[in-house]
Amino acid sequence: MSVEETPHPSSLLDVEPVDKKRYREASRATWISAALNLALTVLQLIVGWVAHSQSLIAHGIHSFSDLLSDFLVLYANRKGSHPADREHPYGHARVETAATLILGASLALIGFGILWEATMRLQHVAELPRVELIALWVAIATAASKEVLFRYLVRVAERLRSPMLAANAWHTRADAASALVVVAGIAGALMGWTFLDLLAAAIMGFMILRMGLKLGWESLQELIDTGLDKEKVESIRRTLLDTPGVLGLHELRTRRMAHQALVDAHVLVDPRVSVSEGHRLGERARQRVLDAHPEVADVLVHIDAEEDQALMSSSADLPDRDALMAQLHELLGEEAAGIERTVLHYLGNRVEVDVFLPMGTCFDAARVARLEQRIASRLPMTPHFRAVTLNCRIAPK
What we know:
The chain is α/β, with parallel strands linked by helices and 397 residues long. The chain contains twelve helices and seven strands. The protein folds into three domains: 17-223, Cation efflux protein transmembrane domain (Alpha-lytic protease prodomain-like); 228-307, Alpha-Beta Plaits; 315-392, Alpha-Beta Plaits, CATH 3.30.70.
């Protein structure tokens, strides 16, 4: 038997307004990135064309893709910060995941294109014009600018726990590394090894392709509800098990949703506690997880009275309350008419019953004895009851 705790309303429909501070900080970081990428795109394309550097042109195209990704991040950040609504009860955070997937796919395609173009040009090295010195200085400036931007973006991403900003930051780091390859290629070309400029372009294309595939794969894993890593799951498990009143735990499941995580679990409590106490234990366990693990957005707790994994199918075959009450009335006979309250416990694929008798019946010892004798003689013949316990009220209501 289980009682399912509904998600707390503050995390679903009745959520707080958009996190404006988080949105503003993420937007500011992205606008800074966009401005720098725009400047570098124009500079690299113009100088690469004038200085005859294929690797610098390729890197300029890559910077243009960075610019496009920055605007994608801005859109996804704004959309993903919207609160939950009836059509999206868990919010819009996965817009960030989808944007990261698109960004990864775009990078993979661009990287493959650059790699292919460089490979084709390597077959005609003798026909290429000499690379000019200015291309080297622009490549060095690009590498330095990208590294500074990376360090800024990664700090913001860690503070906001945003995988989308983190993806953009590491994309920038890959761009800085590829700019160093461009520096080496241009330097080699200036010393007479013209093919090194094209080789640098090919290496850069491979690096971009690899990064795009990595980002795309990680986003795809999140979209298909891949769980948290083992260490985090174990930490959440310990938090739940340390909750007073929780006797056991099973079916702990987790999944990512952008910078947040969702958790659901079955917790075992004393089978004799009331429904309201079981609800309170579940709410306490839920709140402990939210307090101890800031990345968890919501916890769905199922309250179980027993380890129901092996007994689930058999318990489902037990009759409902109306059918069991009819069997109980037949078992108790005419004494059933005086019952004040009945509590059913579905335990171990059988039912245990607590019968509460009125105060007048309890003071009639002979009547209680007859009832006990009737139960003892007839209980073995009942198909679903394991035990029937008589409880007497000795004080007025």
